[in-house]
Amino acid sequence: MNEHGLEITKTVGVNGTVLGVATLSDLEIILKIILLTATIIWTGIKILDALEKDITGEETTEKENKSAKIHRPEDGEKERTELRKKRNGSGKEAGKPGSEGSV
Predict the structure, then answer these.
(1) How many Å apart are CA 53 and CA 33, to the nearest integer?
(2) Dihedral sign computed on CA atoms, order 31, 32, 36, 42
(3) From CA 83, how far away is CA 94, in angstroms rounded?
(4) Which residues contact 52 (CB under 8 A, 6 or more apart)?
């Protein structure tokens, strides 16, 4: 009877292992599908938000700019203008009518 119990234990162990691996494989596929679906929905929402902002002309808030670290060209232009003013030593930009050094 001892050999018979050992044989049953081996069979149950092998069958349990195969069932566990097959179940985890199925679970992995389900999780992949859920993750892919969530990613597609998230991407769609971001695209719609971008299109809505583009259509309405709505700008992002300063908080969104800082958190997303968005660089807007006009910010750089302001900085360059301030640097030009400091270099020229005057409050006027070089090369513009009415400023020092313009012809």
Answers:
(1) 30
(2) positive
(3) 11
(4) 58
**94: helix, coil or strand?**
coil
CB 95 within 8 A of CB 102: yes
* Tens digit of pLDDT at every position of the chain (103 positions): 678 888 888 888 889 888 888 888 888 889 999 999 999 999 999 999 988 888 887 665 555 555 555 555 556 677 777 877 888 875 554 455 555 554 4
43 is written with which tokens? 């991407």
Q: Full-prediction pTM beyond 0.90?
A: no
Rounded to whole angstroms, how far apart are CA atoms 27 and 19? 12
